[in-house]
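Methods — Computational structure assignment.
A single polypeptide chain was analysed. Its primary sequence is given first, followed by the predicted tertiary structure written as structure tokens.
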Amino acid sequence: MSFTDRLVLWLHIGLAIFTIGPVTLAIMSTPRYIRQRNLVVLRYLYRTTRLFAIFSLGVLIAGLILARLKNDFSQPWLTVSMTLFVVSLVLLVLIMRDQHRAIGTLEDAHASAVEAAAAAPRGAGQAVAETPAGAADDSSGPAQLPGDPPAAGAHLGHVERGRIASLGGVTALIWLVILVLMVWNG
């Protein structure tokens, strides 16, 4: 194996480690923060997914260069690996779409909650303050703070959260299959 072959191989392995790991972590963390309605973290995870998805193209490019240098394009395991990698990139695009939709949905819900809080009469806050500390509370759920979104919208982002979790799992499984193919045959 020549120096160029080794250099491209190390570049391919390094890109795989430093791009696929973080993008998988960002994808798998997204559903939790959709459920928590944490827009700051969701925006960060969306940017992280987008950035590392673009950098993961380097894994494919370095793999193609390495296959060209070693004249391995006729190997079936390499064709399967490249095809699976392209499928995982398509799934990443779908995941980013769902992340973007979830952020938009939660932003709309937050804007609606802020508008509703601004339109609420000021007397409602005084009634809560006048309740004695030892009085029994007959609400069946946890107390809702003034800035919290309404409990009726608890389903916000539910569809996107499920799709991101399932597509993220399929993507991680595809990358695991590619890893096994590379180690077994490489």
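Note: The chain has one domain: 3-114+157-185.
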